[in-house]
Specification:
Distance between the termini: 36 Å
Oligomer: single chain
Order of helices and strands: HEEEEEEEEEEEEEEEE
Radius of gyration: 17 Å
Strand content: over 45%
Low-confidence stretches: 1-49
Structural class: mainly beta
Helix content: under 10%
Largest sheet: 8 strands, antiparallel, barrel
Number of strands: 16
Strand order of the largest sheet: 1-2-3-4-5-14-15-16
Number of domains: 1
Length: 252
């Protein structure tokens, strides 16, 4: 678990810049007996373990050309992106501090979970199928590029509602099942997974047929979605319990 004193001092700088990361929950890995040690999510519906389709090269150093917090406060800096297996590691050096991220590259979009502690958050990306099923992949910083998979199903139309979930942890280290509740709050989505007696909370952003999600320690995580065009990326980010989005645009 994250040291609360260290987290609180880090969050003071973020809150001052409008990059408030707030939530409830805990990062965990799900096991077959519902005793998780990491948390949830996307994959090809026909082959859930297949790698996501990619077309862009995002590795290297990017400059933050425009960035704005939820309260309108601006910030500057740069982001370093490196590949690690089927995922990408991100490191921010910005005017509001340094923080980490991990993401999935899907065609010309980069979906990222970010956190104030390198081990205490995760990221997932769901493909929204025509019948409403969510087919997902997910990972944690500690998974070292390995991914888990998750399928979420429910009756009725629309993205919000209660889903039944089945998943497999990274490296096939056990499977799990439970429920997922999704609620829309303005431009963001609030998520809550229940696996046995454990509850994990997260935040999501929708981009077309994709839902990017992140989860982690209370007050320490967010989710980002970047649209890639040549040597620029246009990004939006969300944190739990907020209805509006921040902005972060990059160039190299």
């Amino acid at each position: 678990m994250t040291n609360p004193m260290k987290l609180n001092s880090w969050m003071t700088a973020l809150l001052a810049a409008g990059f408030a990361l707030t939530s409830t929950g805990c990062t965990v890995t799900f096991t077959s007996d519902a005793a998780p040690t990491s948390s949830p999510v996307i994959a090809n519906a026909a082959n859930p373990t297949a790698a996501l389709p990619t077309s862009a090269d995002v590795t290297g150093t990017w400059q933050i050309t425009e960035a704005k917090g939820i309260d309108g406060t601006t910030y500057t800096g740069q982001v370093d992106i490196q590949s690690l297996g089927d995922v990408y590691r991100l490191t921010w050096d910005s005017s509001i501090g340094s923080y980490k991220g991990i993401g999935f590259l899907v065609e010309d979009q980069l979906f990222v979970g970010s956190g104030t502690d390198v081990e205490e958050y995760g990221v997932g990306v769901y493909r929204i199928q025509p019948d409403g099923t969510l087919e997902g992949q997910w990972t944690l910083p500690s998974s070292e590029g390995q991914v888990g998979t998750e399928t979420a199903t429910k009756s009725g139309i629309g993205l919000t509602g209660t889903y039944q979930v089945q998943g497999v942890n990274p490296n096939n280290e056990g499977d799990y099942e439970g429920t997922l509740e999704i609620q829309q709050t303005g431009d963001t989505y609030q998520l809550s997974w229940e696996v046995g007696s454990d509850v994990y909370t997260g935040v999501g952003l929708r981009s077309g047929d994709w839902l990017a999600v992140s989860w982690g320690e209370p007050g320490s995580f967010g989710v980002m979605a970047f649209a890639i065009a040549d040597n620029t990326m246009s990004g939006r980010w969300a944190v739990p319990d907020e209805t509006q989005l921040g902005v972060e645009n990059l160039a190299r």
